[in-house]
Design goal:
By secondary structure, the chain is mainly alpha-helical. It folds into 2 domains: about 300 residues, no CATH class; about 120 residues, Rossmann fold (3-Layer(aba) Sandwich), CATH 3.40.50. Helix content is about 60%, strand content about 5%. It contains 23 helices and 7 strands. It has a 5-stranded mixed β-sheet with strand order 3-4-6-5-7, with helices on one face. A hairpin with a 3-residue loop joins strand 5 and strand 6. Helix 3 runs parallel beside helix 15 and helix 14 runs antiparallel to helix 15.
Length: about 500
């Protein structure tokens, strides 16, 4: 069998193998953002986009609909296929993402085996972020962005620039909150080009040991196509006008930075080692390999920038997991090339042996079946995190139109899905001053509610309180306050009513 056929055989084998693996990596349990996404998608299809909130009991709140297109997409899936459809859609989107990463890796390394290894690492590191949220589609768009950039630098075909403009357009409509990251991913390429220009202009002494070391370790490309990338980046700014959400693409980040939700929401907190040890190890391994071989300056810039972003905000670990592993793949390829070792020629023929192929497929199928068996035992909606039975009680026994329910942040979206007006939900920015337009901050009041709950409940005219029961000091406080009475309680949640308004029978389950 000739070399080309051997490589193609390995390529098809790996694609099938990684698709099977992807099926086992996706968890079944949904996250809170999915619930409000479904409801907003339904609202958009029925009433359009009016830039107002319709799901909290606070009146007159402005809402920016930051991922309106994805909301519609998710609602249509949920409406037709329920939670199972959402689960399957996440699997399909992960497969699409992984295949794009694999194609990108082949584009930048020309090595099938190393591309496969890098894709495998990416699948493992990104799997923890896979769920029915807009970020999953934005991952695909960011992977496409890197693919189009690398393809254009390699072949100069203008269709790749059109692809970049389309990526920007879709980001503005699918997940506008991450649209600024689209421009961040251009920066390492532009910075490398500027450094190349400076090195060309400045004459450095050959006997300078530090300069000689850098020349041996760092590859600085002066690719003239970068000029067109810069022009495309500028033109991409105009895609923000092609949305039904007004100036949101240009103002969302500014308002978010002015708000205080970043102080409270976990994914905006600074990174700790325990949050993602695998991803951090990959980042340091990349730098380690670069030290002992060669690395392109753009990859070092990209890895360093993403590590800094991840340190300051946990949510950026996902970008490091995705884009960082692509950079790692190229550096790993250059590491082997530095020693003149053709890893494809030496190893791929071994993987193409029938016995090895059977063992590989057997192992991945066993792993996938084990993971699926674990996932099938999971609930789509975790009863420990979301008040499933409490919601049933409220809908059967209480007048939802007259109640003003104070609720915990983490399950507000589930209440919203069930047509129960909320005090707060995981649309965090909605409840901050820059977005709400109010002269008081709903999010702040929620975070500090225990200090003056009597005053705040009176201010918001709260009639009922639904909160977590376990390890919740606020729950203990309300139990000891004679002005509140439990009307529903289970293992995980307590529902209180102010005594002045109590009119429902007590239920303890």
């Amino acid at each position: 069998m000739n070399k080309e056929k051997i490589y193609k055989k390995f390529n098809y084998m790996f694609i099938i193998w990684i698709i099977i693996l992807a099926i086992g990596l996706v968890r079944k349990t949904l996250q809170n953002d999915t619930f409000y996404t479904i409801k907003i998608g339904e609202l958009i299809l029925n009433n359009g986009i009016d830039m107002m909130d319709h799901f909290s009991f606070h009146t007159g709140l402005a809402y920016t609909y930051p991922h309106w297109l994805y909301d519609v997409f998710i609602y249509l899936i949920y409406h037709s296929f329920g939670y199972t459809g959402l689960y399957i859609s996440s699997i399909v989107l992960l497969i699409v993402l992984i295949l794009i990463v694999y194609r990108t890796n082949k584009k930048i390394t020309s090595s099938y085996l190393i591309s496969a290894f890098g894709t495998f690492l990416c699948a493992l590191s990104i799997s923890g972020f896979v769920t029915a949220r807009a970020q999953l589609v934005s991952f695909i768009l960011f992977a496409l962005e890197i693919y189009f950039i690398e393809s254009f630098l390699k072949n100069g075909k203008k269709r790749n620039l059109i692809g970049l403009l389309l990526v920007s357009l879709f980001l503005c409509n699918v997940h506008v909150a991450v649209w600024p990251f689209y421009y961040i991913l251009y920066l390492p390429y532009l910075a490398e080009y500027l450094v190349a220009l400076i090195c060309q202009k400045v004459k450095l002494k050959k006997e300078n040991k530090f300069v000689n070391f850098l020349k041996k370790k760092i590859v600085i490309e002066k690719n003239e196509n970068v000029k067109y990338l810069f022009l495309t980046m500028i033109l991409s700014l105009l895609t923000g006008l092609l949305t039904p959400i007004g100036d949101t693409p240009y103002t969302y980040l500014i308002k978010m930075m002015m708000g205080n939700s970043q102080k409270y929401v976990q994914e905006h907190q600074m990174l700790r080692w325990i949050d993602s040890p695998f991803t951090i190890i990959i980042a340091f391994e990349t730098i380690f390999l670069a030290f002992f071989s060669k690395a392109k300056l753009r990859d070092l810039f990209m890895i360093s920038g993403l590590v800094i972003m991840a340190v300051f905000s946990i949510r950026h670990i996902s970008l490091l997991s995705l884009i960082g592993t692509i950079c790692f793949t190229r550096i790993f390829s250059m590491f082997w090339s530095n020693f003149g070792f053709d890893i494809d020629k030496k190893v791929i023929s071994f993987f193409n042996k029938m016995t090895v192929m059977i063992i590989a497929f057997f192992l991945v199928i066993i792993f996938t079946c084990l993971m699926i068996s674990v996932h099938l035992k999971e609930e789509y909606v975790d009863h420990k995190l979301y008040p499933i039975e409490a919601v049933k009680y409220i809908k059967e026994n209480m007048n939802i139109d007259e109640m003003r329910l104070f609720n915990d942040y983490n399950f507000g979206s589930y209440l919203l899905l069930n047509n129960i007006p909320v005090y707060i939900d995981s649309r965090a920015d909605l409840y901050t001053k820059p977005f709400s337009g109010l002269d008081y901050d709903i999010f702040d009041d929620y975070e500090y509610i225990m200090g003056n709950y009597t005053e705040k409940f009176e201010f918001y005219k709260i009639t009922d309180i639904l909160i977590y029961k376990n390890n919740n000091h606020f729950c203990d406080i309300l139990k000891n306050d004679g002005n509140y009475k439990i009307i529903y309680e289970d293992e995980n949640f307590c529902l209180f009513k102010k005594l002045a308004n109590i009119s429902y029978s007590i239920k303890i389950s």
